[in-house]
């Protein structure tokens, strides 16, 4: 064995690394096998950095990226994601800044819902959540009021990693109220919906042991920022708002929520917005006799969406159709405005 010492060993080591770097580059030029980007280093820093392989096929230069075609975890080297929109079955989210998380729900005119979330790690890695069509898993198989499932005996719930540690101040943009609806009646339905969540309103005799807090701040000139496609805005403005506006024809409502990662690992909710389609067949107050077709209670819609904005996730419609946080909101019904056992237990588990 030949032994080197001192400076001779250092020079030999550097020469070997340079030779290895040139060999890798030559081999890459002769083959078309993609590889992961990497670098070759030496004792005094990187000698050569080589990127092997082409951008991912799903990383198209224009338009929304398809969540179904993307991996669940996307390192920043795979695609330039800053400012990009990712779509999953009609839910469109703009990629958040590092350390933030955004979520969105589409509630459709048949009462079914679709949720999608994007989280960005501090290093820029994107993590996709809830990808796929929830309706394919039975979201349209049940319906409140005819399932035989007692909501006061159904303890099922799921929580996200969003939390609200302070009082939520939210507003209604009254100027967006559709013709034929009373501003006062709409505002009252919205207040009732939020109060149902933070006050644990239920018909099960369960006491309010939930410390979630919110307050209605009245009218506001600020809108939700949710555009006509239903896309959640790239950056929040710090205002939690409910308004009416243009949304795709098949859409009843859209909700967007966002949070910032805390040192404890959960996301502090910084904003939650709800937009209801102006042309949607909605009503305020009680269900009137003769209600038929796809007409929906504003209070029922907002109670469900307020649940999301305080961290509640869906439970499967097939097995838990009577809970407020099931995957479907029924037409001509106010059933979701009172929480079931699982909805209350979900809130108690965090607040």
Number of helices: 4
Based on DSSP secondary structure assignment, what is the total number of beta strands?
17
pLDDT average, as an integer?
85
What portion of residues is helical? Answer: 10-25%
* Overall spatial form: globular
Radius of gyration: 26 Å
Oligomer: single chain
Uncertain residue segments: 1-53, 139-145
Task: Give the helices and strands, then pairings.
Elements: H1 6-30, E1 38-42, E2 45-50, E3 65-66, E4 73-74, E5 85-88, E6 91-94, E7 100-108, E8 113-120, E9 126-129, E10 162-163, E11 168-172, H2 183-198, E12 214-219, E13 240-245, E14 251-261, E15 267-277, E16 282-283, E17 296-297, H3 298-309, H4 341-348
Parallel strand pairs: 3-5, 10-15, 11-12, 11-13, 13-15, 16-17
Antiparallel strand pairs: 1-2, 4-9, 5-6, 7-8, 7-14, 8-9, 14-15
Q: Overview of this structure, please?
A:
The chain has 351 residues and is α/β, with parallel strands linked by helices. Helix content is 17%, strand content 25%. It has helices at residues 6-30, 183-198, 298-309, 341-348; strands spanning 38-42, 45-50, 65-66, 73-74, 85-88, 91-94, 100-108, 113-120, 126-129, 162-163, 168-172, 214-219, 240-245, 251-261, 267-277, 282-283, 296-297. Strands 4, 7, 8, 9, 10, 11, 12, 13, 14 and 15 form a 10-stranded mixed beta sheet that branches. β8 and β9 (126-129) form a beta hairpin. α2 crosses α3 (298-309).
């Amino acid at each position: 064995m030949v032994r080197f010492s001192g400076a001779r060993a250092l020079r030999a080591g550097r020469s070997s690394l340079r030779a290895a770097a040139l060999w890798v580059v030559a081999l890459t030029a002769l083959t078309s096998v993609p590889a992961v980007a990497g670098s070759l280093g030496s004792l005094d820093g990187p000698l050569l950095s080589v990127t092997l392989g082409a951008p991912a096929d799903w990383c198209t230069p224009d338009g929304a990226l398809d969540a179904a075609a993307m991996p669940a975890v996307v390192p920043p080297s795979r695609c330039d994601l800053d400012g990009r929109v990712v779509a999953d079955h009609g839910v469109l989210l703009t990629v958040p800044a590092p350390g933030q998380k955004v979520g969105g729900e589409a509630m459709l005119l048949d009462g079914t819902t679709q949720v999608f979330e994007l989280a960005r790690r501090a290093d820029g890695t994107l993590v996709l959540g809830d990808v796929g069509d929830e309706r394919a898993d039975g979201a349209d198989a049940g319906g409140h009021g005819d399932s035989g499932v007692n909501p006061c005996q159904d303890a099922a719930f799921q929580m996200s990693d969003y939390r609200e540690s302070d009082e939520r101040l939210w507003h209604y943009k009254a100027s967006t109220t559709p013709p034929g609806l009373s501003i006062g009646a709409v505002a009252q339905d919205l207040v009732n919906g939020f109060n149902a969540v933070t006050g644990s309103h239920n018909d099960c005799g369960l006491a309010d042991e939930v410390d979630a807090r919110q307050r209605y701040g009245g009218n506001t000139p600020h809108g939700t920022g949710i555009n006509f496609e239903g896309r959640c805005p790239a950056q929040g403005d710090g205002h939690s708002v409910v308004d009416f506006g243009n949304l795709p024809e098949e859409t009843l409502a859209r909700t967007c929520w966002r949070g910032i990662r805390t040192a404890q690992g959960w996301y502090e909710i910084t904003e939650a917005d709800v937009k209801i389609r102006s042309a949607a067949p909605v009503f305020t107050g009680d269900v009137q006799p003769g209600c038929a077709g796809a007409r929906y209670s504003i209070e029922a819609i907002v109670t469900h969406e307020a649940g999301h904005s305080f961290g509640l996730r869906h439970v499967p419609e097939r097995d838990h159709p009577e809970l407020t946080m099931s995957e479907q909101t029924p037409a001509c019904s106010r059933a979701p405005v009172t929480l079931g056992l699982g909805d209350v237990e979900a809130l108690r588990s965090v607040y």
